[in-house]
Amino acid sequence: MKEGYTLIHKTYKWNEQFYCNRTYIHPETKESFDLSHMAPKTIKIKYEYNDGLKKKIKGEVYARVIFSHHCYTKAIQHNENKTILITEYENGVTKEHRAFDQLRYKYTFILLEVIVNISYKICRESRLKGKLIRLEEKDKNNPHRGIYIIMKLKVKKENLFLHIETAHYRNNEPFNIQLKKESRRFMLILGDMLKNDWNYLIS
């Protein structure tokens, strides 16, 4: 561990009064919102890169997709009186309370289709390892406005994971993601990561 670095242990707890079996029950209307489509799933993703001899290498790799609850919840501000759906903790201390967000939930069905077909989607890579974004429903009058899908690729025990950290409407680019200027297809970004860092997954 690097000097001065503190390990952060993140946990969360659902409000079981309104959440059970991947279903959210609205506390006032009692309407049910099915979240089963946000369960982890395994998909095939294409990759492509040029080897040392400039030969184009193409293939497919399996990835386990994990959708964060941030895709359908929103942080509760101090002046808001909303029902808590989930509480996040860092090292046992409450970080924030989050409420169900119906707009984000509505988009999750489109989000699922985007991720299942992510290979050819144009994305931007971050300087932070494995992090990248996809901008959907871009505003014609403001190219920075739209729905930002923030993703992170990780490898655990020789298995590839694609974490969908959030997907929501923003007026500007996330300032802390350190995005590179170039936009490329997801399959090309993944291909370079496999070539340079995770070649053992495809060798």
Q: Overall 3D geometry?
A: globular
Number of strands: 14
- Specify the structural class: mainly beta
- Multimeric state of these chains? single chain
Mean pLDDT: 93
N-C termini distance: 30 Å
* Spatial strand sequence of the major β-sheet: 5-6-13-12-11-10-14
SSE ordering: EEEEEEEEEHEEEEEH
Strand content: over 45%
The largest sheet, given as strand count, sense and whether it forms a barrel, is: 7 strands, mixed
Brief summary of the model shown:
This protein has 203 residues and is mainly β.
Task: Tell me what you see in this structure.
There is one protein chain. The protein has 203 residues and is mostly beta strands. It has a domain at 36-72 and 102-201. The chain is 13% helix and 45% strand. It is built from 2 helices and 14 strands. The chain has a 7-stranded mixed β-sheet. A 4-stranded antiparallel β-sheet has the order 1-8-9-7. It is globular. It starts with 9 loop residues before the first strand and ends in a 7-residue tail after the last helix. The model has no long low-confidence stretch (mean pLDDT 93).
SSE order and pairing:
Layout: E1 10-14, E2 19-20, E3 23-25, E4 32-34, E5 41-50, E6 56-67, E7 73-75, E8 86-90, E9 93-100, H1 102-116, E10 122-126, E11 131-136, E12 146-156, E13 159-170, E14 179-185, H2 186-196
Parallel strand pairs: 6-13
Antiparallel strand pairs: 1-8, 2-3, 3-4, 5-6, 7-9, 8-9, 10-11, 10-14, 11-12, 12-13
Question: Which key features would you list for this structure?
Answer:
14 strands, 2 helices, four-stranded antiparallel sheet, seven-stranded mixed sheet
